[in-house]
Automatic annotation (TrEMBL):
Signal peptide: none
Protein name: ClbS/DfsB family four-helix bundle protein
Length: 176
């Protein structure tokens, strides 16, 4: 196997593992806390369900594309220029979800994407226009954007949440 496929698998796995370890570094009783921010994602659940939903969209694009259809991307009723409203809708859809459910859903969807990647040769992954549904792009760009690169984004968001939770702990400790 060429190192491009292996690197994608390795980096995606490493980044996902690091993301989970970062979340697990917070005491269980504090993992569901939300932080005060003007940004959309205020807690770990928000970030994990964002990843999960993008995994699900990728799975749909892949399934429809490989069946010979032209998938509506990024989602039915949305264009690429509509990413912010789409992400806001994703956020709204999961506000009642518990963190432990979000963790499980995201772990399972991550594994499904990794299994899809493993079924392909490096040539199939890196060759532009290899599959009609990827248009001028290649599978690698879709896979990397929804795994390794997205996990790096998520880690940055989670690091801010961890820092805020730790700051809350310092304040509450001082007030005791």
């Amino acid at each position: 196997m060429d190192d491009t496929k292996e690197r994608l698998i390795q980096e995606s796995g490493q980044h996902f593992h690091s993301l989970m370890k970062l979340i697990e570094s917070v005491p269980v009783r504090k993992r569901s806390l939300s932080i005060e921010t003007a940004e959309r994602d205020k807690n770990f659940r928000d970030i994990l369900m964002h990843l999960y939903e993008w995994h699900a969209m990728l799975e749909r694009w892949y399934r429809e594309g490989m069946a010979g259809d032209t998938p509506s991307m990024p989602a039915p009723g949305y264009k690429w220029r509509d990413i912010q409203p789409l992400n806001q809708q994703i956020w709204e859809n999961y506000q009642d979800m518990k963190l432990n459910q979000a963790i499980m859903k995201c772990k399972l969807s991550h594994e499904r994407i990794m299994n899809i990647i493993r079924t392909h040769t490096t040539e199939e992954i890196i060759t532009k226009k290899h599959y009609k549904w990827t248009k001028t792009s290649n599978l690698y760009s879709y896979f990397a954007a929804n795994t390794s690169k997205h996990y790096l984004w998520a880690m940055g968001k989670c690091e801010k949440i961890v820092a805020e939770i730790n700051a809350m702990n310092l304040v509450s400790d001082r007030n005791k």
